[in-house]
Amino acid sequence: MKVLSQKRFNSFRQGRISALRESRKQLVLRNNLEKRFYRTLSTLFRKFVNTQLYLYKEFGLYEASIASQRLNEEFMPLIMAHYKRVFKAMYKNNEDNYMMDRKADEAFVFGRSVDFELVVSQYFATRQLVLTGISARIASRISRLIEQGRADDLTLPQIAKLVSDKFLPISRSRAAMIARTETHNAASFANNAYHQTVEQDLGVKMLKKWVATNDARTRSAHSMANGQIVDMSEDFIVGGVPMGYAGDSKGGAANVVNCRCVIIYADERDME
């Protein structure tokens, strides 16, 4: 692998990093990706529920484990495609930042191609158990509603309507949470991976800065972490928990789900 020179790195430097400007830019990019994935997930969950309800209404058939498996067969390829889209978008955003006066044509690290199949597969492996659990919980929720209808001596069509009325609104909110969490976490991981490559290959000391959204929905621990600056190899301390980046699974669900914080990376000479 070719190691880029310090001189070439300097030619690509952003200059002074504005945390506010860069965080806003990242949030716009992430939000656009999140909205697209939300529409995809909403359609998937609606079709899944309607299919399961049809089978139940017509034939009285529903098995949570089989339903979960069927949902996974459609959900996993969609999430993998989304991760690839997010990774490429974030890598390209970083390339655009460093190239300053011209746009990057592809998602590279300083002009060198990236094996996104490998990088995304490695990230997916860290999320697979959690993602499988999503399908299982959705299937289990439908099962509980069916059992509730049976206990109330409802007919098959009445049970199907009960599930539709109660679950479809939940599925939309579930799709929104999944889209937000998986988009922002993948984007944070991709940003971190990009700058680890920069530091390792260029021998440049990089710093990272935690930037919280700081609105009414921001966790108090994340607001308190706002402005922390650490070395690339170090963790932020967020609510007493070490986290390498926003969305890091080490933080647990309490720090990860629906997180919208952004990490800013820069050469130590450029960090404000």
Mean pLDDT equals 85
Question: Which residue ranges are poorly predicted, with pLDDT under 50 across at least 5 consecutive positions?
Answer: 1-16, 101-106
Main sheet summary = 3 strands, antiparallel
Number-wise, the strands total 5
- Strand order in space, largest sheet: 2-1-5
What overall geometry do the principal axes of the alpha carbons give? elongated
Order of helices and strands: HHHHHEHEEEHE
Helical content stands at 55-70%
Strand content: 5-15%
Helical run tally: 7
N→C terminal distance? 32 Å
Main attributes?
two-stranded antiparallel sheet; 272 residues
Overview of the molecule:
It is a single chain. This protein has 272 residues and is mainly alpha-helical. It has a domain at 17-203. The protein is built from seven helices and five strands, in the order H-H-H-H-H-E-H-E-E-E-H-E. It has a three-stranded antiparallel β-sheet with strand order 2-1-5. Strands 3-4 form a two-stranded antiparallel sheet. Helix 2 (19-59) packs antiparallel against helix 3 and helix 3 (64-99) runs parallel beside helix 5. It is elongated and about 70 Å long. The protein starts with 5 loop residues before the first helix and ends in a 5-residue tail after the last strand.
